[in-house]
Amino acid sequence: MKNRIPFFVFQILFLQLTSMVFHRLLALNRPLIMGVVNVTPDSFSDGGFYNSPQKAVEHAKKLMDEGADILDIGGESTRPGSQSISVEEELNRVMPVLENLANSHVAVSIDTSKPEVMKQAINAGACLINDVSALRNPKSLEVVAPFNHVHVCLMHMQGAPVNMQENPQYGDIVTEVRTFLEQRIKCVEIAGISQERIVIDPGFGFGKSLQHNFMLLKKLDDLTALNIPILIGISRKSMLGMVTGNAVDQRMHESVVAALLAIIKGARIVRVHDVKATKDAISIYSAMQNAV
Questions:
Q1: What are phi and psi of 22, to 5 degrees?
Q2: Backbone region of residue 203 per phi and psi (left: phi > 0; alpha: psi in -120 to 50; beta: other values)
Q3: Bridge partners (DSSP) listed for residue 128
């Protein structure tokens, strides 16, 4: 009987390959576009539109065709006032989608705060854990740390989704967000996650008032001193609608402008619903920057 290579060896090689995709993207000297794939019935912008695996995969492939560099798959809404769902329900929503997309030519991210979901997503090929709770659950650190090929996104949030918008208060929003992110970076490094695996997110709309959000955007470049890639998620959020008066499904123009302003201020990754429009805007900005 011929010797056969164990399956886990192929799995390790596959996971390392998916990691190389994300490493290569971060090495490029251009902003990256993360396309939003919500497999939920209640997300603030597109809840219910793609809440079956087939619809979600079709939407993800459309985002890839439009130029997404990363696909961020989420099965639990984190909109203000949202309630948590069970691990089983979240897995049932995201795993069929993730397994279908893991072999694609783009990096795949899982938007979750549950260590059980993180583990299964990593085994299926996810190379980025996008956690709104910044891996504050010790079990999450235990799950993610051993996988050297997996990156993490640490986001700032005051409170929890169910109550975060109930009168958020800060002394100095920029300083407090920066201090929190510095502390989380140190904590995950102590847990064994090296700095090159870390991305940070100031958490627009997560426990912030309108003024807090726009002050963060105005001074986003203050966070670049941390020397960690910055991811921002402003797309279609209420902070934009409060300024323009547009309904959530009519906020493409302001979302594109906000993403471009964030890039100018130092953002490395923009998480968006409208991939093509954002990519076109970035192309114009890049052409101007590269003019000689």
A1: -70, -40
A2: left
A3: 109, 151
Catalytic residue IDs: 237, 271
Residue 86 is predicted with a pLDDT of 94
At 245 the pLDDT is 97
For 33, 58, 103, 276, the CA distances from 204, given in Å and listed in that order, are 17, 28, 31, 22
Q: C-alpha angle 170/174/176, rounded to 5°?
A: 55
Q: Which domains does the chain have, with CATH numbers?
A: 31-283 (3.20.20.20)
Residues 251, 254, 258, 263, CA torsion sign: positive
DSSP SS3 for 36: strand
Paired tokens of 72: 């961020």
CA distances from 78 to 8, 38, 89, 168 (A): 34, 11, 15, 16
Q: Is the entire prediction scored with pTM above 0.85?
A: yes
Whose CA is closest to 202, among 225, 172, 234, 167?
234
What is the percent of the chain with per-residue pLDDT over 70, rounded to a whole number? 89
What is the rounded CA–CA span in Å between residue 285 and residue 279?
A: 10
Distance CA 127, CA 69 (A): 13
Query: Which whole number is the average pLDDT over 126-152?
Result: 95
Q: Which of 7, 20, 33, 44 is nearest to 271 (CA)?
A: 33
More confident residue, 21 or 255: 255
- Checking if the pLDDT of 64 tops 80, the result is yes
How many whole angstroms separate alpha carbon 135 and alpha carbon 39?
A: 22
- Helix (H) / strand (E) element for 201: namely strand 198-201
Query: Helix 173-190 vs helix 210-218: angle between axes, to the nearest 10 degrees?
Result: 70
- DSSP code for 143: H
Task: Give the dihedral of Cα atoms 221, 222, 228, 229; nearest 10 deg.
Answer: -20
Q: How confident is the model at residue 29 (pLDDT cuts 50, 70, 90)?
A: confident
